[in-house]
Design goal:
The structure holds two protein chains of two kinds. Chain A is α/β, with parallel strands linked by helices. Chain A folds into two domains: 233 residues, 3-Layer(aba) Sandwich (Rossmann fold); 43 residues, no CATH class. In chain A, 43% of the residues lie in helices and 21% in strands. In chain A, helix 3 crosses helix 4 and helix 3 runs parallel beside helix 6. The model of chain A has no long low-confidence stretch (mean pLDDT 88). Chain B contains eleven helices and two strands. The longest helix of chain B is centred in the middle third of the chain and has 31 residues. In chain B, helix 2 packs antiparallel against helix 6 and helix 2 packs parallel to helix 11. The chains are: A alpha/beta, B mainly alpha. Chains A and B meet through helix 2, strand 6 and helix 3 of A and helix 8 and helix 10 of B.
């Protein structure tokens, strides 16, 4: 399973005076089991790109091949595509509608035409995978849950479809720090356990740096750069030009480097930074003695 | 699909029509609607269509944009057309079992369809060429004489502004929810009527929840800015008739006179 996107272009309201090019010339590849992070300024075309990946929008130019199937070709079964590619929208809790949590999570699997037993098994698995207690929550109304819980139930609704590709559009937006951390850990856990391809859009550079194998940067509908987090976050000037920042810890270590501390370039995690700084200080201490 | 609904939408522009006083435009639209009901022959409709055509041309709103607004009422249009065609008694043109088409029925069907189309196009021109704020200011001013008998003119106008303002917002919201449910494998396009009606539940429930949430947020934002209704409020743009407004009144009355004479004479 892999994704190949070639030369994607999409125009909104084609032929109208309000016509605008949303994305243009986007090409990238994601390999089996990889974790892709997408970053970009608000309105840079990230959400438009995501909606192409499961066929909700059709490109005006370009192709998307997922697992050997060109999903932009005419006559491709959308149900098949959506069976394999799960998309979690921004603020997914606003799509909850059923009387109970279990019924709501079952909506996706039911649409896939699965039987009662299989559905129930998947619902149970998905609810537990997103870190909720199945027996405790299954008969409650989704509308009486807390914001973070609602978000998780909504994500479970997509996870229960067991997609081979899971796409999440800012899944932590508007959550408090604890819920943010929980949801993020959950995404990591789902990725690790199912070995799926995960595509994550986020404004949180630290999250992207921590989770991604590859990072794609887009600005006003165009690709700026793509590479490993280390490659991407070493391009500080380029990122700041498109309104993006480094992860806070990288900002700190770069600042320290500029002031003469001899540590590695583009450190992406707090643990790494702590170790490097400790080593540096130890060496410095030795030299003094 | 949802983007096709142009009723109540504003089309930005700076044409002669756009700059007219909203009160004139509201009255003209009302008059146009009344005239469409006075008209009792095809020549009258032809005159009305020409006038509407001129208004559209002057307003510089693309015709395709206005026509898109007709799509949602296509069903009603077909329905009334069919009803008129089959139900009216008279000279029979064609017959099959209990179904029959009469000459009178056909004529009435075409007549009603034209009336409906002109009605919708004419009234959508009002909102297409008038900013929602200006529109409700106009309504408020036109209703203000009725304040004396206890009509809350300002409140009515405010409710209408909000309703108009939220048509595109709710459409966008519905679009988002639809896409989200489609991503979960929901199917809105196939199945029989019952299945299709049932498939709307996953859209309607979240949409209602969203609508209430939006309404609550708006109410809170209005209170935070000390909104207290129409008492003693002044306005940024005072409405005043200008030369073009008087010209428009003359044209309006002329058009009305032509329509009345035409329907009386013929």
């Amino acid at each position: 399973m892999s994704i190949q996107v070639k030369n994607l272009k999409h125009i909104y309201e084609k032929g109208m005076p309000t016509e605008s090019v949303a994305i243009e010339g986007i090409s990238f590849e994601v390999g089996d089991g990889e974790f892709l992070g997408i970053i970009g300024h608000t309105g840079s075309g990230k959400s438009t790109l995501l909606q192409h990946l499961n066929g909700l929008l059709k490109p005006d130019e370009g192709t998307i091949v997922i697992g050997g199937v060109d999903i932009t070709a005419p006559g491709v079964s959308m149900v098949d595509i959506r069976k394999r590619i799960g998309l979690v929208f921004q603020y997914p809790e606003y799509q909850l509608f059923e009387e109970t949590v279990a019924k709501d999570v079952a909506f996706g699997p039911k649409n896939l035409g699965l039987g009662e037993e299989e559905t129930e098994e998947r619902v149970k698995e998905a609810i537990e995978l997103v870190g909720l207690d199945y027996d405790d929550i299954k008969d409650r109304s989704p509308f009486e849950l807390s914001g973070g819980q609602k978000r998780r139930v909504a994500i479970a609704g997509v996870v229960a479809m067991r997609p081979e590709v899971l796409i999440l559009d800012e899944p932590t937006a508007g959550l408090d720090p604890k819920a943010h951390k929980d949801v993020l850990n959950m995404i990591e856990e789902v990725h690790r356990r199912t070995g799926n391809i995960t595509v994550l859009v986020s404004h949180n550079m630290a999250d992207i740096a921590k989770l991604s194998d590859k990072v794609l940067v887009i600005d006003s509908g165009h690709m700026v750069t793509m590479g490993t987090p280390k490659e991407v976050f070493s391009k500080r000037e380029e990122l700041s030009r498109v309104g993006l920042d480094l992860p806070p810890i990288t900002n700190l270590t770069e600042e320290l480097r500029q002031r003469g501390m001899d540590i590695e370039q583009t450190i992406l995690s707090v643990d790494d930074a702590a170790r490097q700084i400790a080593e540096y200080l130890k060496d410095k201490g030795h030299n003094k003695c | 699909m949802l983007r096709d609904i142009t009723l109540g939408q504003y089309f930005p522009g700076n044409s002669w029509i756009h700059r007219l006083d909203p009160r004139i435009k509201i009255m003209a639209t009302l008059l146009f609607i009344i005239e469409l009901f006075i008209v009792d022959n095809f020549i009258g409709f032809l005159i009305a269509a020409v006038v509407l055509g001129i208004i559209v041309a002057v307003s510089k709103v693309p015709v395709s944009y206005i026509l898109r607004g007709l799509k949602p009422i296509l069903l009603i249009l077909v329905f009334t057309f069919a009803l008129n065609m089959f139900m009216v008694k008279g000279r029979i043109l064609w017959q099959w079992k209990f179904l029959h088409i009469t000459a009178e029925g056909l004529e009435l069907a075409v007549f009603m369809a034209i009336r409906l189309i002109l009605l919708l196009m004419g009234s959508s021109m009002l909102t297409l060429c008038t900013r929602p704020i200006a529109l409700t200011d106009g309504i408020e001013r036109l209703l203000s004489p009725f304040k004396k008998i206890g009509l809350p003119a300002h409140d009515i106008a405010m409710m209408m502004t909000i309703a108009l303002r939220f048509i595109p917002t709710l459409l966008e919201e519905a679009d988002k929810i639809m896409k989200a449910q489609q991503a979960r494998g929901a199917d809105f396009e196939t199945g029989n009527l019952m299945q299709r009606a049932k498939s709307l539940i996953p859209i309607l429930v979240p949409l209602f929840v969203s609508a209430f949430r939006i309404a609550q947020d708006l109410a809170m934002a209005m209170e935070a800015r000390c909104y207290r209704g129409g008492e003693n409020r002044t306005r940024m743009n005072e409405m005043k008739f200008k030369g073009r407004d008087y010209a428009a009144i003359v044209m309006m009355l002329l058009f009305a006179a032509v329509i009345i004479i035409e329907s009386k004479v013929l």
